[in-house]
Amino acid sequence: MVGTRWDEPLGRLLGTRAAGPFAGLGLHTAGDLLRHYPRRYASPGRLTDLSSLSPGEHVTVMAEVRRATVRTMRSRGGAILEAVVTDGTRELSLAFFAKKPGALRRHESRLRPGTLGMFTGVVRFYRGAAQLTHPDYQLVGTDVDDEAAALVEATRPIPVYPASAALPTWRIQRAVRTVLDPLTEEDVNDPLPTEVRERVGLPGLVESLRLVHEPYTEQDWRRGRDRLRYEEAFVLQAAMARRRAQAAARPVVARPTTPGGLLAAFDARLPFVLTAGQQDVGAQIAEDLAADAPMQRLLQGEVGSGKTVVALRAMLQVVDAGGQAALLAPTEVLATQHLRTLRELLGPLAQEGMLGAADRATRVVLLTGSQAAAARREALLDAASGAAGIVVGTHALLGEHVQFADLGLVVVDEQHRFGVEQRDALRSRGDEGDTVPHLLVMTATPIPRTVAMTVFGDLEVSTLTEVPAGRAPVATHVVPADNAAWTARTWARVREEVDAGRRAYVVCPRITADDASGADDADLLSGEPDDQGATRPPLRAVEEVAEELATLPALDGVRIGTLHGRMTAAAKDDAMAAFAAGRTPVLVSTTVIEVGVDVPEASVMVVLDAERFGLSQLHQLRGRVGRGTDPGLCLLVARAPEGSDAATRLATLAGTTDGFELATVDLELRREGDVLGASQSGSASSLRLLRVVRDAALIARARDEARALVDRDPALEAWPALLAAIDEWLEPSAQEYLDRA
Ligand code: ADP
Ligand code: MG
């Protein structure tokens, strides 16, 4: 927003000193402050339940004063004012200290019995009772002179802001008023086009801000909040619609099917029958590839639903049509495995230039960051000359120096590890030439429809719902970590599987015991709030657990391997190969095995500290076992107090194998940012009010409106405010850069 009061620095509006603590909350301008929405609303008629205060917590409570007395302290000297406030049942004590009693009289006279107020401070326990020391407080209705006004004030919902110790919620409230009161709709650039706003029946931006920051009734703040929520959904959907329109407008080479080509030869040698879903999705993709607009498709399917074959068939169609395909995996382990799988599936069809190759054959090569120089040079050459029909790799494939003779299709596996920006980087691959490649992204993380609309709104979505017949389901059980008999049984089960010629994964959250930053996975959940205060043992680590298992009588003589992200690519390959071949039938690892690793003999997985993993992630993990004909078993060793979120998550996981149900529960239990990753949900702060599961209907409506608008005006020339909001949403890093400069 340009040159409006919206951009005015808070220092100028509130004074430099007063603005200091706001900067601490990341609020620098009038707009920042106005977008700092109340977290909830207190109502003077409804007191805060004081039974659930925990030590160390910074709280803001609405309570009634019961009594307040000043006395001198004989032991230490000085005076204390002790006040007691109540929610009607329980009490909370407030303590103020001073040298002389006189200094406390002001509080005493304000804290009259029966007065309602909000009190804020850090909870501590003194002689078994909850106490706030020197709390900041605000009494209801006492700041107004005339009685009628006092009555109104006493019934208004009170906004409670995300606050800090340095900045209690009412100071934020006062600052918001100072900034908001003089504003008119003309002072701001509303990103919601008026016509959309009117059609949906929503108030203007300034009016909405007044409704959420200074409501008179509950209906007020709800109406304001709904409009701000819609605005978030609309900006997001407009961004996605514009992305989609821009990508669709780029030139592409149509790659229709070629009779008698590699694809036909491949289909003829497939050892199994494609599932109905694979056939349907395959036909859809074949049609996309034959069109002269770039394919932009998301293929989602349960773990083991057979996405790789679908992708390979698409790649072969492109190769048949004279182009090349790139398959991108999130890790080197997975890329290497894809190479192996593709070569196996293709057999002589992948041996172009070699003895025993089929008449019609192509070359499948690997390109990764840590590859030996000679192998890399050769792969680069094959990609550039067109000798390689299929190039498999990691992010290194995105590198600008990688040249393709004619890149016709990019397949991204396990898309949930790639952000929106990377998708854009992929799309612009073809920019050097005249055309862009078709794009197919695949994910095994089931994505609820609204999340798909939000995060992948620029893609068409196909879903594989069935898993090939004959696959045994994975049984999942929760093992309490402190139950010695159960954990002993866990390792005995591992032994039984190994003795039967099968393999076991043991998954840990960390690599080494002494290294807090050692996890491969930035997605680990922080401890449950109910952990606070309790001392919990450190998280289990790969190296420590591997040593420990080696000493267990139950695993006597069993060879144990390790795998984690800090090993070299070659060491990782060796570890995977030794595990696959059964030389080390137990593999202790981090979540690097999460995505796509396929060892059919793996039948059991033990996850340690399972409560630290998200639901979808655990579902992914357990998809690594039971991939052959043997039934899979997943044992979740966890420390999850009954009734905690963690216990709910784990019980849900044990109770269902439906990935969509799990993803939905996961979303409800966690914030979107956690689930989607900051890079996928845009800037972490962009979804302030929107919840993708709860607001499904609203998001769908916003999407229709946004697509209609973008269809009429793809460049959004008529909507500069919307465009600005989109840019701000899409490029938090650019924004940060500007802030620093
Ligand atoms: P994901 O969707 O998790 O990536 P994969 O593509 O790795 O699944 O497939 C899992 C396994 O199922 C592979 O071993 C693959 O060869 C096999 N598979 C794929 N499609 C079928 C099918 N139609 N019938 C039987 N097995 C199949
Ligand atoms: Mg896969």
From TrEMBL:
Report the protein name in the record.
ATP-dependent DNA helicase RecG
CDD domains assigned to the protein according to its UniProt record, in alphabetical order: RecG_wedge_OBF
Q: Which InterPro entries does the record match to this protein?
A: DEAD/DEAH_box_helicase_dom, Helicase_ATP-bd, Helicase_C-like, NA-bd_OB-fold, NA-bd_OB_tRNA, P-loop_NTPase, RecG/Mfd, RecG_dom3_C
Q: Which residues form the Helicase C-terminal domain?
A: 493-673
The enzyme's E.C. designation = 3.6.4.12
Q: Which segments constitute the Helicase ATP-binding domain?
A: 288-464
Please name the taxonomic classification of the source: Bacteria, Bacillati, Actinomycetota, Actinomycetes, Micrococcales
Region (Disordered), start-end ranges:
518-537
Which SMART domains has this protein been placed in?
DEXDc, HELICc
Q: Where is the composition biased (Acidic residues)?
A: 518-531
- Fetch the Gene3D superfamilies from UniProt: Nucleic acid-binding proteins, P-loop containing nucleotide triphosphate hydrolases
Q: Where does this protein have coiled-coil stretches?
A: none
Q: Which domain of life is it from?
A: Bacteria
Q: Which UniProt keywords apply?
A: ATP-binding, DNA damage, DNA repair, DNA-binding, Helicase, Hydrolase, Nucleotide-binding
**Do you know which SUPFAM superfamilies this protein is assigned to?**
Nucleic acid-binding proteins (SSF50249), P-loop containing nucleoside triphosphate hydrolases (SSF52540)
The GO molecular function terms of this record are:
DNA helicase activity; hydrolase activity
